[in-house]
Amino acid sequence: MSNASPQRYNNTAILLHWGLAILIIGLLVIGYFMPDLPKTPLRKLIYNTHKSFGLIVFALVLFRIYWRLSSVVPAHVPGSPLQVKLAHYAHIFIYALILVVPGVGLLASSFNHGFNLFVFHWEPLFPVDKELAHAIMGWHGVTAYVLAGLLALHVAAFAWHQFVKRDGLIRRIWFGVAQ
Ligand code: HEM
Ligand code: HEM
Fold first, then answer.
1. For residue 2, is pLDDT > 50?
2. What H or E segment, with its residue span, contains residue 20?
3. Atom of ligand 1 nearest to the CA of 169
4. In terms of one coarse class, where is the protein primarily found (predicted)?
């Protein structure tokens, strides 16, 4: 049963938001550094870990979108019509990207080395085509960096609410009772 109140997101949404935030930020940081690593077994392990957590993120995001579409959420925070619209579309754009980024990673890996869930390995789903895999992986990088830019704006918006407007917006997406 949903326990969403008009004032804050429910515990499922809060857990998903912060769990995914940690995973996605971790994947962005690891993804940024790993292509430059020397070709050692450690690099393989890091790629494997990136793909495994990426797969978990993909599944969690599907669940999160399902949750979002089927739940009652707090009304938008008051603001000018433009601010409300910007926040609304920025959130939709974030949802789209957190689905597309791992989706494109999976697609690229489906034409190359396959993908891993820790010790379990799936062979490539399609006939191996390294050139195509490389081209698709390029889009994985591009979309991941667009996501990083959008998340920077998301955190800047949070900081503006928290430290300039001082409206305690964070309470809407944190455990406890909203005031
Ligand atoms: C990978 C990192 C993150 C992602 C993907 C993400 C995504 C989202 C999304 C999609 C929403 C809209 C929820 C909805 O209405 O469905 C949201 C809300 C929110 N996020 Fe994040 N977020 C991330 C990190 C952060 C961080 C680091 C902060 C603050 C330090 C933050 C603060 C908030 C706040 C305050 C809200 C509530 C906004 C409101 O009530 O209108 N988020 N986040
Ligand atoms: C939200 C989830 C994910 C994020 C945020 C993310 C982020 C990134 C980033 C920032 C890069 C560096 C791109 C570059 O510099 O060109 C990268 C590379 C990579 N990602 Fe992901 N990734 C995610 C999920 C996945 C998944 C699900 C897979 C595959 C199953 C995957 C496979 C790879 C591979 C193989 C590379 C290395 C590409 C290369 O060597 O050029 N990623 N990722």
1. no
2. helix 11-33
3. 35
4. membrane
Q: What is the largest CA-CA distance in the chain?
A: 56
Assess whether the C-beta atom of 31 lies below 6 angstroms from ligand 2.
yes
Q: How many domains does the chain have?
A: 1
Residue 9 has pLDDT above 70, yes or no: yes
| Residue 3, domain member (yes or no) | no
Is residue 148 within 8 A of residue 28, CB to CB? The reply is yes
Ligand index nearest the alpha carbon of residue 6: 1
**Does a structural domain hold residue 5?**
no
More confident of the two residues 178 and 68: 68
CATH for 158: 1.20.950
Q: Name the pTM for this structure.
A: 0.94
Please tell me if the CB atom of residue 133 comes closer than 6 angstroms to any atom of ligand 2.
no
Nearest CA to ligand 2 atom 8: 31
Residue located nearest, by CA, to atom 11 of ligand 2: 31
Residue 22's domain spans which residues?
Answer: 11-173
- pLDDT, one tens digit per residue, over 140-156 is 999 999 999 999 999 99
Q: Work out the average pLDDT over 62-90.
A: 93
- The reply to whether 179 falls in a domain is no
| Per-residue pLDDT at 5 | 52
Q: Is 141 in the pocket of ligand 2 (CB under 6 A)?
A: yes
Q: Closest residue (by CA) to atom 11 of ligand 1?
A: 91
| CB half-sphere exposure, 21, CA atoms < 13 A | 12
